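Curious: explain these tokens?
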Amino acid sequence: MPQVEVIGVYPVKAPEPCHLIELVVADAKSDFDVGKITQAIDGRPRDNWQVPWDEHFLNEKGEALFNSNAPSEVPASSTFRLVFFLHYLNINKPLITPYGSVPLPKLSNKPNRLSFVVYEPPC
């Protein structure tokens, strides 16, 4: 059965409130859709909820891009790491993923192994 675990939530210096989120997706199906990851915003329709920005699939140890030529390409492996930026995160609410809701851990500093993941604002 597919599972998602958030292994890190890292504050980001940005013009808008933003966090880098790192997760492990295990037993993923080939139709895993990063764009379906979101977080509910009370009083707003789902179409207005935030979605991942500038996602990157990582190698197993989370220290390099899975495919440096196509960093947002879904790995063929059924288990992978994923990082992405999410604006206006509510740390007290779970993420909604294609495989169900997932609680968020406490905020922590971005690990050095992710120094290559740099925030760039959306256009």
In short: Residues 3-105 form one domain. The chain has one domain: 3-105.
